[in-house]
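I hope you will forgive my troubling you with a question about protein structure. You will find the record immediately after this paragraph.
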Amino acid sequence: MGNLAIITAVILRIFSNSFLNVFQKKLTAKNESPYSVNFVTYLILAICCIPLLGHLSGAVFMADFWLYSILGGIFGAFGNAFLIKALEQGELSVLGPINAYKSVIGLLGGIIFLKELPTLSGIVGIILIITGSYLVFDTVEEKFSLALFKRKDIQYRFYALFLTAIEAVFIKKVILIGGITVSCISTVLFGMIFSFLILKFHKIKISKITTGNILSFLMPALCFGLVMVTTAYTFAKINVGYALSLFQLSILLNVFLGYKFFQEKHLLKKSAGALIIILGSIFIILY
């Protein structure tokens, strides 16, 4: 029963995260500011969390709760803001596969900081992820080159990758302190605070929600809520590194959704690249 619950959470997380990206990209296509979309999403979820605030009663007296919640809020708010900025400017089917580099960064981090030498499966995983990325990036004008990494959308996506990977560590810390519910509430509340500060720093007005566009804002909030809950549940049950690798399965779905909703081209080549990247992630899991 426990394994079935974890598998269900991972599948829900994969689908909700991919559709979250679709809804975010649709909003930016309507000239909504990425920073405003980021804040409004957190705001809607914060309103939904009001009845659950009683769950924080024990955690608020712990210094570690405040430390990890604030740090998680900072990294989460900036990470999501950069992700939406990337989606505003780039293709979903190209940006999605970049997320697999979380696994590579984690493995390289172990080599540099923990002196952990990779096994053959770890090395094969890195090679496969780079190979799959080559196929995906070969469909854009710059190809797999240094010029590609000068593109703003690619840069924003890597910023988001680094920040959300670090956020995952703080989410896990809060889960260990207060449990899944406390972690979700703190993610929403502190994410809302810092996404609001980002909005004000850029002097951008909050999007006006009307009866005509309310569904456009509710859908990403619903998807983000599902992402947050399923992520917290998965982190609570298994190792964060394993969880992040399993979540890479969403990149194939991102390629298809980019083709379906935004008429992005080269579906077969991108799909082949995504499958190779997923295979690379599996090898890193084995590592």
Q: What stands out?
A: The chain is about 80% helix and 0% strand. The chain has a mean pLDDT of 88.
